[in-house]
Fold each of these.
Amino acid sequence: AQSVTQPDIHITVSEGASLELRCNYSYGATPYLFWYVQSPGQGLQLLLKYFSGDTLVQGIKGFEAEFKRSQSSFNLRKPSVHWSDAAEYFCAVSHGSGNTGKLIFGQGTTLQVKP
Amino acid sequence: EAGVAQSPRYKIIEKRQSVAFWCNPISGHATLYWYQQILGQGPKLLIQFQNNGVVDDSQLPKDRFSAERLKGVDSTLKIQPAKLEDSAVYLCASSLDTDLTDQFFGPGTRLTVL
């Protein structure tokens, strides 16, 4: 069965510092991979996605993620964090071929930004 | 373009009562999803509609949960009777279709069962 693991439940970084949020997935074939952000009281917003091709994908708000098949990982990065990036981040996976669109989410990583 | 609308935003009920949530997807989106997000966890799919047909309801507790999308647009999710463990945020999402299309999420309904 597909699964997604986000090893870090909570991360604190200083404003201006770099950020990396980890995501590992379990899936037999090439998955579709996503990162979403959820601010308090808000719905989930798609940051970026990987379907195929270039393994380094760029997203909104200055985020990027790299797909590494050998490590079954899809880590999210940002070179310089802003206070407004404080939120909860979810990695998700979906089926490849015959995709029904169903997303399987990790348990999330809460990002706190120190001034 | 208007986003996914959900109501109510908050609901508090006692166990064994019933409750209903409403979702209006983005205009033209054929696929609609209901997710349950328990505190501290990621969202979990409850049911997926393609137009007014059910694509996946494998994780819907059918003894107490029901959902419909009669005209292929709006959808309602009902819980009857509610249990304490149903306390969660219920998220509705929609997409143009199923394959390779982005899901847009509503703000959610936060349910507290006392």
Amino acid sequence: DVKVTQSSRYLVKRTGEKVFLECVQDMDHENMFWYRQDPGLGLRLIYFSYDVKMKEKGDIPEGYSVSREKKERFSLILESASTNQTSMYLCASSLGALNSPLHFGNGTRLTVT
Amino acid sequence: QKEVEQNSGPLSVPEGAIASLNCTYSDRGSQSFFWYRQYSGKSPELIMFIYSNGDKEDGRFTAQLNKASQYVSLLIRDSQPSDSATYLCAVNTGFQKLVFGTGTRLLVSP
């Protein structure tokens, strides 16, 4: 089974802090994704990566950056956390093949106060 | 206009009945379609996917795709209380990027 592990289940940070969310997958998947999920808005894509050191903006990249230095690890960075970034963050990975499904981590519930 | 539309529900069905969940999408070039189940406080888990027009069955689940109508559905036969969850429809719009609907909440009563 694919395992996607997110480093924290719950996180509380203060406004203005720099926040790192880590994600590791163990199935040698090429693609990795960061989504946020908010009530009524569903899952929205923040950033994704097809390969090491490559990144592409998703639908809502503002206020976020990412890093992929190794194939198995994809980090989401909030440079200066704000209260409107309070959300559930979900990391996912998939094979590089066309039509491959996403496999999700358990999620990180981030609260910015 | 949202790219993937689902009725938010809740859809209430009695135990043993068939639950029918529907999804429409706007991008005619979409090639693959996924159904995920999400329990409260948990992450989405893949139920099944479909690429071709018609029906695809997997146990109690059947996915139906009609590309001409831009419509995909999920049928759950013999619904169980454990099926109570939010069901997310996702569409691959290219480059393996999935666009998700906001989900339909299903409630199965004993």
Amino acid sequence: EADIYQTPRYLVIGTGKKITLECSQTMGHDKMYWYQQDPGMELHLIHYSYGVNSTEKGDLSSESTVSRIRTEHFPLTLESARPSHTSQYLCASSGPTDYTFGSGTRLTVV
Amino acid sequence: GQQVMQIPQYQHVQEGEDFTTYCNSSTTLSNIQWYKQRPGGHPVFLIQLVKSGEVKKQKRLTFQFGEAKKNSSLHITATQTTDVGTYFCAGWDSGTYKYIFGTGTRLKVLA
């Protein structure tokens, strides 16, 4: 079934650790996005990609980086996690008429 | 910059009451989508409106796209506790082709 998958679903890590949040979609979408969202709050776009080898920073400044080596895969990496990175991270992809979110990764940095 | 504001930010209603959230864009949108996000969940697509003045219904939900394609509304008739969540509008900006999310309206329904 065509869908978008994020792993892990929950993650608790110590300050200073490097982490990678995974996002994969099987819909063949060229456009993919990462959002950061605190509970009940707005969605903030932190990175997006319009295709392989294309990545751009979003509206919200972020210390994370992304890569897009394959169409279906759009991982997000934090080189050195801090408590201020505690949040939910949502991956999404879009086609001509649809915009689909993954289930999200809830990250807690202690 | 481009903004899509939603009002109200929060709304508490008694079960059975109606609810409306308004979505206002500073720029023209080529189309608009509405999403519902349950507490702890992720945004789930509800509906898309494309035409100026378009009105669509889904059971107790009525969606409207403004004539100028800069605003939209979602109306829920006779709310139920299952309607609890945050409702987001979003759309493609006609000029920049960026996809912009609204600020969201958080609905609580009191039984």
